[in-house]
Write a structure and sequence with these properties.
Blueprint lengths: L1 H21 L8 H24 L8 H29 L2 H23 L4 E5 L4 E6 L4
Antiparallel strand pairs: 1-2
Length: 139
């Protein structure tokens, strides 16, 4: 049991690293790319290692070692994700990335504010007393 705790500790740390390496891919409109990278890392790197160690007797016959190897294989995939993600971030043009994220973050504000400018006061019943949803000057 002590060995599996150490493997889970490594798993936790590599999971944190892989999440930190991937947090900008969706705001940068690279979500499909990162999903593909995740698929490759887990299904083409981690799963074959896990299957070879856990389901065969090529490396060991110990059940404890096989369990540790299966959990450890996810850490191998997550290390690959972290390395690829941080390398992508290292090569990223941060000025253009900031512009893309800023444009995506602010594209709703103009439409929402323009549509609410003509509303004035709008009252809405929400299972209780009337609430003022939005008040904008109409001048």
């Amino acid at each position: 049991l002590g060995k599996i705790v150490w493997v889970l500790t490594i798993h936790t740390q590599t999971r944190i690293l892989s999440i930190n390496a991937s947090f900008l891919f969706i705001p940068l409109e690279k979500g499909i790319f990162w999903t593909s990278v995740t698929f490759v890392c887990f299904y083409l790197i981690g799963s074959p290692i896990s299957a070879a160690v856990g389901l065969t007797d090529w490396f060991t016959t110990s059940v404890d070692t096989k369990m540790i190897a299966c959990v450890g294989a996810t850490s191998i995939a997550q290390i690959a994700l972290a390395l690829l993600g941080f390398e992508y971030l290292r090569r990223l043009d941060w000025l253009s990335a900031g512009g893309i994220i800023n444009q995506r973050a602010n594209n709703d504000k103009q439409d929402l504010s323009a549509s609410l400018m003509d509303v004035g006061q709008q009252r809405m019943e929400l299972s209780g007393p009337a609430l003022i949803v939005a008040v904008y000057p109409t001048e």
